[in-house]
Amino acid sequence: MVTLRWLGHAAWMVSFSKTKVLIDPFLTGNPKAAVKESDITDVDYIMVTHNHGDHLGDAFTISKRTGAKIVGMFELSAMAGEHGPSEENFIGMNKGNLTKFGEVSMGLTAAVHSGNECGVLVSGDGKTIYHAGDTALFGDMKLIGELYHPDVALLPIGGYFTMSPREAAVAAKMIGARYTIPMHFGTFPPIEQDPEHFRPLAGENTRVEILEPGEEFVIP
Ligand code: NI
Ligand code: MN
User: Fold this and answer.
1) Separation between Cα atoms, residue 22 and residue 71, nearest integer Å
2) Which ligand has the nearest atom to the CA of 111?
3) 46 vs 63, 70, 149, 152, 159, CA distance in Å?
4) How many A from CA of 184 to the centre of ligand 1?
5) Do residues 21 and 106 lie in contact, with contact meaning Cβ atoms separated by under 8 Å?
6) How far is 211 from 5, CA to CA, in rounded Å?
7) pLDDT tens per residue across span 7-61
8) How far apart are CA 99 and CA 119, in angstroms?
9) How far is the CA of 49 from the centre of ligand 1 (A)?
10) Number of H-type helices and E-type strands within the chain
11) How confident is the model at residue 81 (pLDDT cuts 50, 70, 90)?
12) pTM
C-alpha cells in the first residue's frame, strides 16, 4: 500500500511499506501547512525540487533532526554550506534517470522554472509518483508518461509562478497518469484557484482527485 498525504502547497509525505519520502517540505511559514516541521519524526528521504523557499522549506532542519537524506540537484549541498546537513546526508543527483535506493527508486526530471529546478519521480511497491515541482508546461512531459507510467501525477495549478489549470490540463493529458492531483494553489493570494475548474479540463484519460491539506490518498 502506498499512501500520499498532502501537507499543503507542494509538500507531500509518500509512505511506502518500509520507506517514507517527504517531498518539498515547506511547513514553517506555510499558511496551509497540515503539520508542523517538528511533527515530522519518521522520514527516510527528503526530495527537493528546487531552491525556492516554498519548496526547500524545512528540508535542512528536518534532515539534521531526523537523519533523513536529502535528494535533489547536486548543487543543493554546496548551497547548504556549513548550515546544512553533513555531506553524507545529501544525495546530489541530476536529471534523467530513475535510480534504486533500497526499497524505492528516485529520480529527477526536467522542469521549466527557475531556482535549479527539477521534477521528481519516486517509485516503490509497484507504484510510481511524478511530482512536477514548479513548472511551466513542456512537451517532454509526454516522455515522462511514456517511460515511467506514473500512477499519480502531482501537478501545480496555481498559475502566476507555474502552470494554471489551463496548462496543467494539457500536462495531465500528456502524462496520462491513472490519477492526477492538483497542488500549489490557494496558499497565497496570487495562486488562488478553484481546483474544480481543473477537473473537467483534464479530460477522460486520468482521474482527478482533489484533496484538502492534511488529507491522504491511498493509491488503488
Ligand atoms: Ni519556485
Ligand atoms: Mn513554488
Assistant:
1) 10
2) 1
3) 8, 5, 22, 18, 25
4) 10
5) yes
6) 9
7) 999 999 999 999 999 999 999 999 999 999 999 999 999 999 999 999 999 999 9
8) 14
9) 9
10) 6, 14
11) confident
12) 0.98
